[in-house]
Request: fold
Amino acid sequence: MGTVTNTEPTESAEPARRPGARPWSWAVLDTPIGPLLLAATGQGLAQVGFHADERTAARAVTRLTGRLGTPATDACQDVLDEAIRQLTGYFSGTLRTFTLPLDWSLTAGFNRQVLRELAEHVPYGTVVGYQDLADRVGEPGAARAVGTAMGANPLPVVVPCHRVVESGGGIGGFGGGLETKRSLLALEGVLPEPLF
Reply:
């Protein structure tokens, strides 16, 4: 797996910053499920984006510049390097639990509550139903809202929304595509490896 790190200089020596802006860095990591855009702040990994070809990555970087209030720099490269190291270990089968710091600022409310529950209590190689996850956060009947939270997860793979499935045995949806979800579940031994 290779990475392409943001090395582009900013357009001016002093980039525009809004009040509350936070430094951040980004890179694209080539993985078995395709290129992932990774963005990190000083607090931790803030975003993982699927299908990060050049065009998709450029759009994501533009959105993040707006959300984080300043263009990317190399200020958070150490956090990004740790995310790359751990994701590389995950995809090679040597890492089962992510221990890197996470920046939860791109999600809030119910979504954040559900995603934290998922990250902390649904381990590698297991799955949970949408309804069960709703029950775990004290919101019975909120299975659809859990599905919405999974779709809005800014940290897929690391916060493992691929481990959330339908209670009737179906695989459910996935923002990265169903083949990606199947591949991640196969990597973790939940589903058999595809034959071809």
User: Anything to note?
Assistant: The chain has two domains: 3-9+18-92, 109-187. The first helix runs from residue 54 to 68. The longest strand covers residues 24-29.
